[in-house]
């Protein structure tokens, strides 16, 4: 989605400008549009002046965006741009000298009179394009040294350089827009939760201790030998303890930490809108989140409709091959196992003979027109290398006949049955896979997304870039086999998630079959939230930790104790704020909606963190670094 310029986007900013016209600099009600010029010496911002201001003497503060031959300059602040006319008369030659010699991005004050631009020189693309300010006095508040890059949205610069000089990148209208929109959305969320629904904003500690399961945590050394704090992955335990403490409805704009190494578009520290409620069920949390998003949704992105559709985990996997389906386009996975049973094809029969054996396919619309042979080959290769899954392609020729390795095994009738089952049309390409259900679904789900990318790169619009498709995914399994050791189980969400009431008895006989009261919120194929109804019974929680997950429950004795003191039934959810905002804006990365993000490798390229500390500084923590390693690292950098 093309990113919107700042000026058009900040409706409330323009509204503030209009209000100023009528009321001068008088006080504003706390609930009205914000007053951007309160408490400071400027009369207006650089995005505010219009023809109705003509004749007024104004004082503006801003950065020199552009200066031309000592005749005029463009002054910029967070709200927009104003053209400034540099005086040419002898009496003000010092002002001319000052402004003509100031390097771009120097910060200045100008005072002058608002005038209409001469006829024909208006700039309809600029909100302030009807006027200019004729300078009377000016002051260079601070001059700018040679820039590492130009502060213009259309100038491409490397991300590493942008991160190193993040404070300069923040001056771009795009980042200004992103951070201000984020702030407005969070403000609306606070309003909805606290003012409309009685939630209490509570801060919870960031120095805590290790939590079993889940992501890797950052450690913080303490002065007690061998003891470390952990930075929490989320305030999960605290928010449950707040429910035991009778807070009833909690929320927090919570900073969370996960030491997940380098992963594209993940940040080691990130923000969640963290929510917990007592006496609530899954439907209650879902309606709350739908209301919250509707209330805080930016008007310029169009309305969102509620309730959001919902699918079960099993349905999501079967239809889309993933637990976070992108429902903006069709191309669902079709199960043709029944049809395939009668075919005398060896690899198909072989696959169907195993437990969970299946034959499935996706149909790529107009694939022959938009994909090259090498695209189809690369899709097949991706399935092979990433999922160990062979794929057979079937092409529907212009005369309606099929081209595939399989056709020699299919009679005419079977071919037309296949065309019908897959709803194939001329020029469509089908990718077919036979094998174990989950593996086949995952491979086809991934190919579905990759082929959508290829089709779009070739010019077919499949996913409306302005559409927002929310989806609830429910009825997850409570436990999944551990990736590194499939004979052991781990929580699909976290160990505090309650089993589905209808599957309670299975917990003791076959825990792998138990569904949970865990729900995820998906937006355009991205997980933007997840939560669950919690276990509030100490005995059940102890059973899950000790008997199913084989965890040391001692680490969680505080929580287990608390559940024994009349803990209310409770549940909650967390929304990933960075991801949500980046999707709303259409930003290419979550780094674009975080003021000071870490690099792909988890480093702060501006301040150069993490950094070395001396052995003396480590002494109080009883820690020694093996220095040869550290020195080698230092040399590498
Ligand atoms: N603490 C969970 C998470 O960070 C969210 C929740 O269950 O409320 O994913």
TrEMBL record:
Family recorded in the similarity comment: Belongs to the class-II aminoacyl-tRNA synthetase family. Type 1 subfamily.
Protein name: Aspartate--tRNA ligase, mitochondrial
Pfam families referenced in this protein's UniProt entry, alphabetically: GAD (PF02938), tRNA-synt_2 (PF00152), tRNA_anti-codon (PF01336)
Entry keyword annotation includes Aminoacyl-tRNA synthetase: yes
Aminoacyl-transfer RNA synthetases class-II family profile domain location: 179-597
Record NCBIfam families: aspS_bact (TIGR00459), PRK00476.1 (NF001750)
Family annotation (PROSITE patterns): AA_TRNA_LIGASE_II
Keyword annotations from UniProtKB, A to Z: Aminoacyl-tRNA synthetase, ATP-binding, Ligase, Nucleotide-binding, Protein biosynthesis
SUPFAM superfamilies in UniProt: Class II aaRS and biotin synthetases, GAD domain-like, Nucleic acid-binding proteins
InterPro entries: Aa-tRNA-synt_II (IPR004364), aa-tRNA-synth_II (IPR006195), aa-tRNA-synth_II/BPL/LPL (IPR045864), Asp-tRNA-ligase_1 (IPR004524), Asp-tRNA-ligase_1_N (IPR047089), Asp/Asn-tRNA-synth_IIb (IPR002312), AspRS_core (IPR047090), GAD-like_sf (IPR004115)
Entry's Gene Ontology molecular function annotations: ligase activity
């Amino acid at each position: 989605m093309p990113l919107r310029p700042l000026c058009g986007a900040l409706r409330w900013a323009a509204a503030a400008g209009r209000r100023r016209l009528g009321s001068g600099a008088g006080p504003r009600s706390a609930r009205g549009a914000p007053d951007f010029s309160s408490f400071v010496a400027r009369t207006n911002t650089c995005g505010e002046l219009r023809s109705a201001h003509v004749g007024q003497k104004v004082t503006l503060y801003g950065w020199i965006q552009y200066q031309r031959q000592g005749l005029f300059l463009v002054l910029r602040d967070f709200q927009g741009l104003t053209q400034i006319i540099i005086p040419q008369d002898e009496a003000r030659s010092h002002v001319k000298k000052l402004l003509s010699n100031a390097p771009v991005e120097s910060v200045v004050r100008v005072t002058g009179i608002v005038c209409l631009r001469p006829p024909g020189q208006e700039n309809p693309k600029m909100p302030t394009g009807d006027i200019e300010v004729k300078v009377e006095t000016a002051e260079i508040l601070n001059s700018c040294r040679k820039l590492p890059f130009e502060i213009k949205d259309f100038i491409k610069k490397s991300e590493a350089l942008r991160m190193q000089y993040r404070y300069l990148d923040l001056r771009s209208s795009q980042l200004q827009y992103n951070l201000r929109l984020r702030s407005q959305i969070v403000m609306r969320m606070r309003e909805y939760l606290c003012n409309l629904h009685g939630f209490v904003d509570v801060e919870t500690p960031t120095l805590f201790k290790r939590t079993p399961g889940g992501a890797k945590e950052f450690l913080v050394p303490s002065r007690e030998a061998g003891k470390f704090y952990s930075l929490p992955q989320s305030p999960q335990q605290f928010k449950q303890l707040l429910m035991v403490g009778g807070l009833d409805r909690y929320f927090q704009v919570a900073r969370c930490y996960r030491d997940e190494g380098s992963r594209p578009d993940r940040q080691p520290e990130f923000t969640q809108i963290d929510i917990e409620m007592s006496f609530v069920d899954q439907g209650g949390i879902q309606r709350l989140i739908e209301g919250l998003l509707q209330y805080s949704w930016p008007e310029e992105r169009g309305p969102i409709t509620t309730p959001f559709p919902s699918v079960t985990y099993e349905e999501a996997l079967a239809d889309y091959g993933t637990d976070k389906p992108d429902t903006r386009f069709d191309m669902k996975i079709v199960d043709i196992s029944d049809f395939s049973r009668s075919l005398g094809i060896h690899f198909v029969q072989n696959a169907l003979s195993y437990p969970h054996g299946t034959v499935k396919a996706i149909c790529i619309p107009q694939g022959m027109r938009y994909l090259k042979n090498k695209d189809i080959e690369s899709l097949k290769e991706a399935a092979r290398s990433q999922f160990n899954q062979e794929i057979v392609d079937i092409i529907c020729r212009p005369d309606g006949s099929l081209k595939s390795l399989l056709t020699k095994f299919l009679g005419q009738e079977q071919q037309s049955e296949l065309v019908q089952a897959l709803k194939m049309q001329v020029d469509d390409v089908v990718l077919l896979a036979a094998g174990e259900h989950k593996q086949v679904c995952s491979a086809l789900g991934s190919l579905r997304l990759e082929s959508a990318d290829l089709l779009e790169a070739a010019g077919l619009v499949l996913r409306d870039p302005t559409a927002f498709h929310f989806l609830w995914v429910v009825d997850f399994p409570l436990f999944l086999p551990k990736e590194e050791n499939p004979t052991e189980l781990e929580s699909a969400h976290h160990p505090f998630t309650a089993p589905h009431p209808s599957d309670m008895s299975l917990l003791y006989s076959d825990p792998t079959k138990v569904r949970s009261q865990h729900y995820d919120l998906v937006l355009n194929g991205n997980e933007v939230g997840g939560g669950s109804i919690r276990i509030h019974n100490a005995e059940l929680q102890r059973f899950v930790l000790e008997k199913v997950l084989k965890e040391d429950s001692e680490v969680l004795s505080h929580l287990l104790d608390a559940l024994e003191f009349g803990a209310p039934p409770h549940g909650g959810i967390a929304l990933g704020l960075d991801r949500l905002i980046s999707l709303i804006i259409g930003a290419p990365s979550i780094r674009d909606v975080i003021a000071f993000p870490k690099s792909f490798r988890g480093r702060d390229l501006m301040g150069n963190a993490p950094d070395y500390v001396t052995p003396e500084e480590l002494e109080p923590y009883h820690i020694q670094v093996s220095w040869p390693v550290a020195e080698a690292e230092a040399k590498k950098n």
